[in-house]
Amino acid sequence: MPRKSKSAVELQQLSPPKITLKTKGLTEKQKQLVRLAIDNQNKIIFISGPAGSTKTYVAVYSALKQLKSNDELDLLYVRTVIESADKGLGALPGVDDKLRELLPATTGVVNDLIKKQRVQAMPINFLRGANWINKVVIADEAQNFTFKELTTLITRLGENSQLFICGDYMQSDINGKTGFKEMFNLFNDTESRKQGIQCFSFGLPDIKRSKILSYIIKRLSTHN
Fold first, then answer.
1. Do the Cβ atoms of 165 and 143 come closer than 8 Å?
2. What pTM value is reported for the model?
3. Residue 145 lies in a domain
4. Which of 123, 147, 148, 117 is nearest to 135 (CA)?
5. pLDDT in tens, 205-220
C-alpha cells in the first residue's frame, strides 16, 4: 500500500519555525558583543552592566542569530525563580519581552518557537544533573546567583553549546551573597579567553532605556 504523503499543514508543523530578526541598528559596543557571541571558539560569555544597558537584549539577539543559522540549536533561559510552570514564559519578564521585540509579531514565530520547544525556561535550582547539548543558554539576573549556583551552571555546558551569564553588580536580591562578581573576576584573564571564556562589560554610556535612568545609575554608583 503506497505511503500517504504528508499534507502541507503537517509539514509546516514538523519544520523548524522560520526566524527573521527585525532590522534594528546596533551600537558599536553591542556589535562587539555579537561578534564574540557568533565566534564558535567562545563557549561562555559573562556580561556585566547596569540596568538598561542591553545585556539581555544583545544576548537574546545573538542567540536568535545562531538559532536562525542552525536548526539543531535550542534556546534555554535560566533565572533564579519561576513563579509557576503553567504560566510558561509569561512568568519570565526578560526573555519573552525580548523575543517579541526582536521577532515580527505578525508571523507568530514566538509562539511557534515555544510550541516546538526551541525556546524553553528553567529555574537554576533545577539544573543539577543536566547536560546541555546543542543549546544556547542565557542565564539572566545572575547577580542573584550564589557562587555555588554559578558553579553548577557553568559545569552543565556540553557539546555544541554556548552560555551567556548576564548580571548587574549594583543589583542583588540575595543580601550580598551574590557570586557573580567573584566568578566574573575569576575568569577575566588571558588564559580564560584562550579557552573560550569571555568577560564583557557595558557601562553608563551603554544605558539605552532612558536618559533619566542613566542619571539615576550614575548617582547611585557614587553612593556608599
1. no
2. 0.84
3. yes
4. 117
5. 888 888 888 888 888 8
